[in-house]
Description:
Layout: H1 2-12, H2 16-45, E1 54-55, H3 58-113, E2 119-123, E3 126-129, H4 130-149, H5 152-169, E4 170-171, H6 175-200, H7 204-210, E5 213-214, H8 216-223, E6 235-236, E7 241-245, E8 261-265, H9 266-284
Parallel strand pairs: 1-4
Antiparallel strand pairs: 2-3, 5-6, 7-8
Helix pairs in contact: 2-5, 2-9, 3-4, 3-5, 3-6, 3-7, 5-9, 6-9
Amino acid sequence: MSDMESLWKLVYLLEPAPVTLILTAIAVTFASATRALNYGREIERNWDLSEATIMLDRSQALMIPVMSSCSLLLMFYLFSSVSQLLTAFTAVASASALYFCLSPYVSHVKSQFGLSDPYVSRCFSQSFTRTQGLLLLICVALVVSWLVSGHWILNNLLGICLCIAFVSHVRLPNIKICALLLVCLFVYDIFWVFYSERIFGENVMVSVATQQASNPMHTVANSLSLPGLQLITKELELPVKIVFPRNMLGSAIPGNSDFDYLMLGLGDMTKQGFHECHRYTIFKGV
Length: 286
């Protein structure tokens, strides 16, 4: 019986959901590294962009897993109290990340077709064009759609953009600090995934990752008795992970499972994105 169960597990790796999850993780890793390198070249051409980046030194790299651990514990014990604030912050960050990821493609299309793009306003001493305004509206609309529906595809889109934007804006000056950060995050993952249950009585990482946050849009609509309240999801999966339904094609799932989705945290792809970015930098001389 155990041999048959093991065989089922191996066969299940060829199901659409696991294959899609693996391919998506690989694609996001290389997309993060590529966008980070291209953004580095943009900074070299326009030093004003460097104000939006964070260059980590050794002490800051060491503090990242410490602060991440504190944030993890905060969400573990007080998630229900801060979930709406966390959702609102995530929505703003997701819109910014989505704009950051889509803007190079919009600029490429604009240059290829020679489209005019007049300035419409200046905000915070920065020029704001008609195309940028339209792109911003599209990004806000996608985030609002996620807040309303909570659909897993939109959740994945926003999570992927957050991962790419983080890798691009957090700069590591050399391979030593990169290696130090990756080792610290590796220890961080090992402890919170495999050993936290012994201390806190529950797997902290899994508990936080699988909790759903209260939707502030539903709370506002409910307090104002707005029409269409039933269309707004009450709780949301935050885009801190990519998820895929186990039965993507409606196929039967072997065995019983407590979860309807396969998931992978953004932290794993972010770490690999940093690694690939520095590997390209070293071997290609960027």
